[in-house]
C-alpha cells in the first residue's frame, strides 16, 4: 500500500515588480520593465516548488510597486486575509516590487491576523537576467510559507537567503542584492540549503496594533514632508490644501524642524490636521517630548504614514492615535 503525503497548500499572490521584470538582454539589470511576467510563469520557471508545496497563483496586479494605491493595498489585504483564513490554504506568499515592499508588509502586519505564515518576496534583478535572484527567492519563500516554524511571526520578508520581519524591515540600498535590513532589530533567520533557520522563537513586535479594515474602501490622504536646511515653511499648508488629513514630518535628527516651520505646523494642527514627527535617518527614534505633535517612536516616515492612515480611517481620537505611536 502506497501512502500519499499531502504537501502544504500555498497561495501565491502576484503583484509584479522586478521579480516579474523583463529586459532586452541577459546582462540588463536596470531600465527593465517591471511586472511583465505573469505569476503563473514565475511559478512554472521554478519546478522545484512542486516538490515542496501545492501552489495556486493569483494575479492581484502586475506593475512596479511605486504604483500601489490604497484600493490596491486593501484588495491585496483582503485576498491575503481570505487565504489566511481558508481551510484550503496553509500559507501565503506575496510577490512584490522592492521599492515599496516594506510599506505593504508593514500594512499587512497591522491588518491581517497572524494565523498562518505570510511571506513577502521580491528580487533585485529581473527574471531575464543571467544572474536573476527571483527564482531562488521564490523557492525559499514558498518553503518558508510551508514551514510550521514560520507560524506566529506575522508577515515575513525573504530575499538574499535572509528572513526578516515585515514590521521592521527597510530597503537600505537601491541596487544591492542584500538591500533589505533592519540594522537595529536584525534579521530573524536565514536559509541553509534553502531550508529556513530562525535565530529566535516567535514574538510580536513592541507597538504592534491590529486594525480591522474589512469594510474600508479607501484610506485618508496622509503626506510626508521631508526636512532639510532652509526648507520652505509654507509647503505644509500646500499639502493640507491638496487634501491631506494628516502629515508626517521626516525631521532632522530627533524631531528637529525649523523655527519658522514649527509656526506653520502649529497652525495646521489648530486647523485639525494630525502631525507626526518621524526621522529622515534610517534608524533611531523620535522621543515623546516633541512639542505639540505626535512622535513616531521607532517608525520611519513611510511606516508612520501607514499607521496614521489606519488610525484616521478607524476614527481614532488624538489621544488614541498618540498611544499607538508613542510606545
TrEMBL record:
It is an enzyme of class 3 (hydrolase). Transmembrane segments: none annotated. Keywords: Hydrolase. One of its GO terms (biological process) is L-asparagine catabolic process. GO terms for molecular function: asparaginase activity. It catalyses: L-asparagine + H2O = L-aspartate + NH4(+). Residues 221-325 form the Asparaginase/glutaminase C-terminal domain. Residues 9-201 form the L-asparaginase N-terminal domain. The active site is at residues 18, 98. It comes from the Eukaryota. Substrate binds at residues 65, 98-99. Belongs to the asparaginase 1 family. PANTHER family: 60 KDA LYSOPHOSPHOLIPASE, L-ASPARAGINASE. This is asparaginase. It comes from Coleophoma cylindrospora.
